[in-house]
Amino acid sequence: MFGKYLLIAAYLGFAASSLNVTSGPSADGVPRLDLASLESGYHGLVKENETLVEVTPRIKAIGAEICSFRIVNKHHGEAPFEIVLKPGGEAELRARKALNCEKRKNYKFDIAAVSCNGDVSDNATVHISVVDINEYAPTFLDPSYVCQVDEGRLYEEIVRVEATDRDCTPKYGDVCKYEILTSDQPFTIDNEGAIRNTEPLDYERSHNHILSVVAYDCGMKQSVPVMVTIKVNRICKLGWK
Fold first, then answer.
1. Domain annotation for the chain: domains and CATH numbers
2. Residue 120 carries which DSSP code?
3. How far separated are the first and last CA of the chain, in Å rounded?
4. 61, 69 Cβ separation under 8 angstroms
5. Which residues of 152-187 are buried (b: 16+ CB within 10 A; e: fewer)?
6. Could you tell me which residues come within 8 angstroms of residue 165 by beta carbon, excluding any fewer than 6 positions away?
7. Which of 68, 69, 112, 159 is the most buried (most CB within 10 A)?
8. Interior CA angle at 165 toward 160 and 171, to 5°?
9. Which residues, including other chains, have CB under 8 Å from residue 52's CB and lie 6 or more apart?
10. Cβ neighbourhood burial of 101 (10 Å; 0-12, 13-18, 19+)
11. C-alpha distance from residue 192 to each of 157, 159, 177, 201 (Å)
């Protein structure tokens, strides 16, 4: 009977020992990044006008007392980031300068945790995407537009204006709409910038029409207006002398 109790006690002691090893710092005190797998790494988002990177999953190291994190490998040159140690072995990632999505959209680098006795964890890769903000308004390719049409006709397209946007993503970098600001004019413009008349033009009524046109990006940021001048040609009619 006594031997049976010894066996049970030994089993319980082994189980407790195993539990302590898996739940606390590693037996050898070597830090490790708290990731499901090192291959999955981290993924972060940072806006152009902010410095704090939203990282998933959070950056945390376990297995030892952590004194710092470091960037250990820059895959594509510059990595303008720093890792700030927080309590409990956690860290936050910050940009060291303003980022520009129009110049560079993505960054990739490796990080590691460093314990207070100098041991370094295995590396994990961080993938950063720079989130575009609507910095720029559309600008027209030409400073103004001038064209001529004959009176008395309906045109499918009289002139086409075009604007572009310097922002780096389709949401803010694509032009989604054009608008004629000048009221009471017999013209319309579509989302591709094509202008047409909605009724036949009359030379006697107006020799030319001057339109103020603007473009909008897909975030509805408006351009500076561009001037479109449409000159009306008089058509000779039978019976004139």
1. 29-131 (2.60.40.60), 139-233 (2.60.40.60)
2. B
3. 135
4. yes
5. eeebeebbebebebebbbeebbebebbebeeeebeb
6. 136, 137, 138, 139, 172, 173, 174, 175, 217
7. 69
8. 110
9. 46, 92, 93, 94
10. buried
11. 11, 11, 7, 23
CA atoms within 13 A on the CB side of 31: 27
**Token representation of residue 94:** 């910050």
**3-class secondary structure, 89:** helix
Averaged pLDDT, 178-204:
97
Q: Across the beta sheet with 175-180, what order do the strands follow?
A: 144-150, 226-233, 208-217, 175-180
Q: Using one digit for the tens of pLDDT, what is the confidence trace for 133-160?
A: 999 999 999 999 999 999 999 999 999 9
pLDDT 10s digits, 88-111: 999 999 999 999 999 999 999 999
Q: How far apart are CA 161 and CA 189, in angstroms?
A: 9
How far apart, in whole angstroms, are the C-alpha atoms of residue 44 and residue 58?
Answer: 10
151 in Cβ contact with 234 (< 8 Å): yes
- What's CA 83's distance to the chain center, in Å? 22
- Count the residues in the chain: 241
